[in-house]
């Protein structure tokens, strides 16, 4: 192992590449438990992202080549593909990715100008437009599909045998009627390797490993993931005094997109807060909103909405978390200025 | 009947008390938070360039600020340029207007200079100068204090011998302004190797 | 023997970067004197100390040390070699503005004629020393070129010698501290004794062991009774920034808008103090140490060169053909600026000529990664300020702390999008300065306008009062006359 670098990589494209590399363990784990469909989704998303990016750059009369090699479009595509249900049909992937890149990024002026996280915008848009597909096409990890089943799911004919809601969703909709003991007796848990939720724990662990590597390489800072995960743990632990009604801490942490979002979604620098303290507050905000929406909202997972809401709060967080400038008594507050 | 009377009188009494308390508070607030002068006029005046040139049709910047506060158009200040109009629009929350001026008078930082050999010492320009930037006495040569001149050109017309010229404001000989980045031939942003460790 | 202590700095720079220093490039070969060039160039307005005026005319013969330029601040620049003034004309200058400016051109005649000042005899007071610094043209030789005498106020407690030299490639101060140590220590001691300064702090980065040893020896041999406090700093850029050095060595944070002098601290470059020492002996600044370095030079080294020597002549001392270079960075890679006209002469603030090939990667959009904020030693948020500046919102950038920026360019060094942040901030700071000036003038104009209105009103009232008085007097007289008439009748 080489020594830890002192600074982030000195190039945007290298940063993006490292994030892509850090996602590889997660992708491999996904394929092990949720079948090869992930690969179809990834391919479709990357192709859509790159062609949408090229189209937008062309329409906006920008230089296409140099912007494409910065890999930001590829990264957006990969993130959205990993966020979507594993058995999502191709049109869902294409629509989500195209709206991510076009509506989430280019209508605001391209790289660096988007006010919200493009991947989460695309995801949320699909969640609203195609709620059934987005909530029922998750692969049941106990019935990992083979190549043929994955391909037919990609073509839009997913078999009910392999799909269902996510564990997090199940906990909210079906398990709530059961006691904690009954819920844990569900095969999803009883066949677990680690006694957790079958499949998801390894995927979460793989994402966690990739994320830690990114922190080590200084591509991201620890503040964002720590803020989100700590908030989720603290809040769900506080409310789990009644295990029969509350969703357990580890379900919150592992079954949803928690770990993935903590390291790869919230860390989008453009739409998040920029100071270390600001990042912490941003992540805490996402954590609180996620818990609230997961518990009281209509949607199974809430990270997308929580991130989008906090994206809009990011400029304000930035204004109020500026460090004290050397030589000044207090830190500069508020937007200020006349222009 | 009695109940109805009680209800009504309680309502009347309650509202009266609330009114009295509210009125007392307003009375107090009007004294405690009284602001001297007109803050809006001062804010407007702060944005005007203080050339006191009168091109807006008012005898100075403050009078124009007062007129704007009463609803006059914000685009009458040629020395301030479009920038001042935009700032006024932002301050007052109204739509910006194009500057009401000839192209030639806009955004030229000029100062008055007296051709001293031709000055007859009539003091007419001294009386015209709104900011006391001309010194001199009757029958003696006058001169403009360049640093104090706002370039309003009010002294030019009164001069009986036309010995006042408007010239671009002279810059200090060592004045300079960096070029906008990306144009400059600098390697200042070349790769700087980093020590890792 | 003067007393001294060496301590490691307990404070660490917040932010800042560890650039590759490349200092060994120019310290391997010994420092040498360069041959006198064929011509010397002295810009009248850009020699340091503000705009100036020529004290000599074309055709005059000057000796080494003859005053040739008097600046508005009083500072006098002298001819660095004996020779003839051949021209006073617009000429390329060593300055970031990259423009031509009125300059005095002197052709040295090779004679050793000197016209120096009389040596000062101890004891003398602070005013004498100030006058001497003005006559000898003593400026901050570290790069800023601020007239040194302006810092010397009564009530100064501490003198900090800025021996950090944190800028990569630069070794001019290091070299001076090795070969001219006694002058520096003497200058520091004389200044401290004149201004009644208690402590002399030397802030030096821990990558200069040779200089440190030389300083220790010189202090031991010094006969003054000054107290030296040598502070070893971590090698980190920009520990040599004035404000940061004061914080590192003394723990004092200089408030925004005030100068160290107001807190009883003055900071001087080692070269400035060495020059002061020579000025006391009557010798004005005629030469300085310049680092010639960079990968494009065959033998990078430090040289002692006459002020005004053209860059192209100096580069020859590094065994390099100047024609092969299109651009030279004056100063270091962080704070320096490019000069393409190599006929420009070096000035008192030219500490380094850096020649190297640099590849400038294309700028890409800011992704707000915050790497710049993490290294900003002033704790600014460059990613926010650049957003404001590029959008033309200067007010907002100022609100965000633009005027506190020290232009150290650490942000440039880490930006993954290769945005020239420091260049934008410099432009913004200049614009902010102009704007503040404009606002000051406007406020003064308003005050004069209002004062004039008050005066005109007062005069009108007085005249009115006089007229009323006259009228009353006349009426009175008429009344009296009428009464008298009536009585008579």
What's the structural blueprint in terms of helices and strands?
The complex is a heterotrimer of chains A (339), B (197) and C (489).
Chain A: H1 12-34, H2 37-59, H3 64-68, H4 72-83, H5 90-104, H6 118-129, H7 131-136, E1 138-139, H8 147-154, E2 163-164, H9 167-173, H10 180-184, H11 187-190, H12 200-216, H13 223-239, H14 249-255, H15 258-265, H16 276-296, H17 303-320
Antiparallel strand pairs in A: 1-2
Chain B: H1 2-32, H2 39-47, H3 61-69, H4 81-92, E1 110-114, H5 124-128, E2 134-135, E3 143-144, E4 164-168
Chain C: E1 3-8, H1 24-27, E2 32-33, E3 40-43, E4 52-54, E5 61-62, E6 67-71, E7 76-78, E8 83-92, E9 100-108, H2 126-135, E10 158-163, H3 172-179, H4 181-195, E11 199-205, H5 209-221, E12 227-233, H6 242-250, E13 265-268, H7 270-280, E14 287-293, E15 301-306, H8 311-316, E16 328-330, E17 337-339, E18 352-354, H9 371-375, H10 382-390, H11 394-399, H12 410-414, H13 421-488
Parallel strand pairs in C: 1-12, 2-15, 10-11, 10-13, 11-12, 14-18
Antiparallel strand pairs in C: 3-9, 4-6, 5-8, 6-7, 8-9, 14-15, 16-17, 16-18
Helix pairs in contact in C: 3-5, 4-7, 10-13
In short:
The complex is a heterotrimer of chains A (339), B (197) and C (489). Chain A is mainly alpha-helical and 339 residues long. Chain A contains 17 helices and two strands.
Largest sheet of chain A: 2 strands, antiparallel
Count of strand segments of chain C: 18
CA-based gyration radius of chain C = 29 Å
Major protein interface? B-C, 37 and 58 residues
**Strand adjacency order, main sheet of chain A:** 1-2
The rough form of chain C would be described as: globular
Q: Which ranges of chain C are low-confidence, i.e. pLDDT below 50, for 5 or more consecutive residues?
A: none
Helix and strand content put the structural class of chain A at: mainly alpha
Question: Residue-averaged pLDDT of chain A, rounded?
Answer: 84
Count helical runs of chain C: 13
Report the span from N to C terminus of chain C: 111 Å
Helical content band of chain C: 25-40%
- Mean of residue pLDDT values of chain C: 90
Count of runs of 4 or more consecutive helical residues of chain A: 17
**Strand order within the widest sheet of chain C?**
2-15-14-18-16-17
As residue ranges, the low-confidence spans of chain A are none
Gyration radius of chain A, in Å: 20 Å
